């Protein structure tokens, strides 16, 4: 654009516009809301994040959890080379759970393979195994699993006994014994407790919502300050609480869309049931979304720039994941950690979403967690409105 | 509406410090309604801070006053409704289109027909055909035009313009000033800060502020007269040499080159004439007593204030 195509300055008196005084609060919040929607629409990256983040996370987490892993790398510690030992290994491999990559004869080699993560399973056939079976001594067949990833190990572990028995049923050598001729002793190494996979998809709803909602609003005020638009916004007649509503409401819809997406995928692809009332789930999810948005907004009124906003969001997000019961069973945490957990919205939402989806809980059962979420939301909003600087002082 | 006494801005003793540094010191000023008031001074002199205090964006540490009849400390919400503030840096939303920006402002001020008001302003600004263009993609001149449009959209009574023409080409600057004069003719009061002397001369009244202190105010003629500066214009050969020789001589307060001539000024006429006497007879130099320009006055003021406050 050059100066050449610039038109002559405007002529004639400026028109005088009528001003409506009623419902000023709603009008100004609405002005802010429309503006935020347009900006969100223009911000392609954020828009992609809204849809892609939950889909990708669910696919990655969900499939890793729900698909029963096959052909897990395994090793065998063979301390005797007998026909029975060979039959058992063949039977294990036939289940398609195990794939024997290594055959070792030394205990240290065996341990190292497991420790280094080269194999997830190790089967140990002790010396004199076949003879002991024939004598009816019921010797132990040791199966060691790397349970640092309990989900990967648990399916294979659970089916071990039955599989081996079925496989050996038709083995002429053993015949059709009324009971197992040997004992399978399974050792889940490194992490003896395994978590249930059904827990994870509902948990992901809460985790994804926490992350995206926090970040969206945590940036909202600092972005205006950094781009210089805050100076003009502050010189206009809008109140802090109106700015807050205008900035939160669009993202409530965004969060609702995300929750819908995650739950649909969870139900459709991973067969997670929704036993409780869908309307109740939607209602309490909206409450949880608003709580997170308020906390994000509070962060943005406290920090100086967008980088700090991201850092502070992460500082809130990490304990949410670790202490809410998403990662570790809540009941198993030390008391102090449980107290911290009770202060995090995710803790309460996880209880709500798991209870509604998996146990069919009603509002009656969830009163405490609902109140806790509402209280956290009001607290965050109060801090945000009081922290919001009306001036540039 | 009170404050109908013909005074739009009336403040006394404003002071403001940031981190122990006093940016505005004991500043008092009065601006008549319907006038264009120029705010001049070097960078960092406290112009922006003063403007921000006037529109309620900053609270003064001390001092009091009224803006459009409203108390600047207590009634900042009321002041905001009546004041259009154009920031130094473009502060509309770059990722919103021209129309969306104007509609946003119109809605915030509660205009009954936000869309209509925005459409009317687009037409008035000559931005028809560009209404869907993102504000961030506009050129400097257009951005400034849009920003002025956004300020005037809610029919303010007072416009505060903070260096509105910085970085804008001369043609756009001239158009902008024509627009400001048109608005003032309709009764709008305009306070505008600037670095440009030609713009200062287009103001009804000016105030000169340096290092937080208001040093001079009045009409251009008054400011020049009050400076009591005697100025000689010298033309001829080797003016550079003359500059270094005259600088620092008693009575010579300022030696400044203006194109092919040199302005030599001082407040003490006798001392000045005594000092320049040896050069007045020198061949190749033509001396002529002239009235000081506004720029002479300001440069002299700036030099003097530096001595006092730095």
Automatic annotation (TrEMBL), chain A:
Membrane topology type: Multi-pass membrane protein
UniProt name for this protein: Mannose-1-phosphate guanyltransferase
An example molecular function term from Gene Ontology annotations: transferase activity
Keyword Transmembrane: yes
Protein family membership: Belongs to the ABC-2 integral membrane protein family.
Cellular component terms (Gene Ontology): plasma membrane
Cross-referenced Gene3D superfamilies: abc type-2 transporter like domain
Compartment list: Cell membrane
InterPro entries: ABC-2_transporter_component (IPR051449), ABC2_TM (IPR013525), ABC2_TM_bact-type (IPR047817)
Transmembrane parts of this sequence: 45-65, 200-221, 248-272, 278-303, 315-337, 370-388
Keyword set, alphabetical order: Cell membrane, Membrane, Transferase, Transmembrane, Transmembrane helix, Transport
Residues covered by the ABC transmembrane type-2 domain: 162-391
Top-level taxon of the source organism: Bacteria
Pfam families noted in UniProt: ABC2_membrane_3
Organism: Bradyrhizobium nitroreducens
From TrEMBL, chain B:
Listed Gene3D superfamilies: P-loop containing nucleotide triphosphate hydrolases (3.40.50.300)
Superkingdom per UniProt: Bacteria
A Pfam family recorded for this sequence: ABC_tran
Family the UniProt entry places it in: Belongs to the ABC transporter superfamily.
CDD domains named in the record: ABC_DR_subfamily_A (cd03230)
Protein name: Multidrug ABC transporter ATP-binding protein
GO molecular function, one term: ATP binding
InterPro entries: AAA+_ATPase, ABC_transporter-like_ATP-bd, ABC_transporter-like_CS, P-loop_NTPase
